[in-house]
Design goal:
- By secondary structure, the chain is mainly β.
- The chain is built from three helices and twelve strands, in the order E-E-E-E-H-E-E-E-E-H-E-E-E-H-E.
- Strands 1, 2, 3, 4, 5, 6, 7, 8 and 9 form a nine-stranded antiparallel beta sheet that branches. A three-stranded antiparallel beta sheet has the order 10-11-12, with no helix packed on it.
- A hairpin with a 5-residue loop joins strand 2 and strand 3.
- The chain is globular, with a radius of gyration of 17 Å.
- It starts with 8 loop residues before the first strand and ends in a 17-residue tail after the last strand.
Amino acid sequence: MKGNQEMSEYLFFVKMTEENNTCVHSKLYVHFREDGKVFLSLTSDTANVEVVGRNYVDALISLLNNLKEGSIIIFNHTVTASTGDSLEFIEITETVNLSYLPSIDDKMIHFELNCTINNQFFSASAPEDFSIALQKLKNKTNLEFQICAFCNNSDFQSTGGEDLRFGWSCLRNLHQRELSLPWYERVHEFEKSTPNLSAIHWCPSFKESDKEFI
């Protein structure tokens, strides 16, 4: 049985900053295809690029490689966060670009997350792994983000090549789960899940978990 494909496509209104610091409003379309690959289409006044990758991050790297040198894609998100009994809405800016790493003598995708809370600015970043940047931001703000990445109903298959930006599976419809078993002994659970969820997604079934990524 294949997983539910409800969350197979997304549309983001993003900003793209090019090498001369020109900011261009753009649309980014993300489609998780039935063959398992990911199609991205970025459209703006200065660019019209389509790419296919083995997962979202792989496709995003290909997309950035097809844009002007030094291009940065900027996403704006609103998430709910809690401190004890109080809830508040937090605006998180996600920027992605290709950054040169001397240790591998190559470029690698770089995620940076920024937010301002009570006039205090917080920033966290990580190469390649979105979940590490997200965990760093969570630790710095000392808030509990109510999003898929930190939900007890979400999980991922730790194959070594997982994409923790859009690689989440929602298991909220499973009434009995074997959480004590490793993922490879629970493949039947993932076959009944809703795949390809954003780490920053939220639904009314959110249940806080104690998972950490660093």
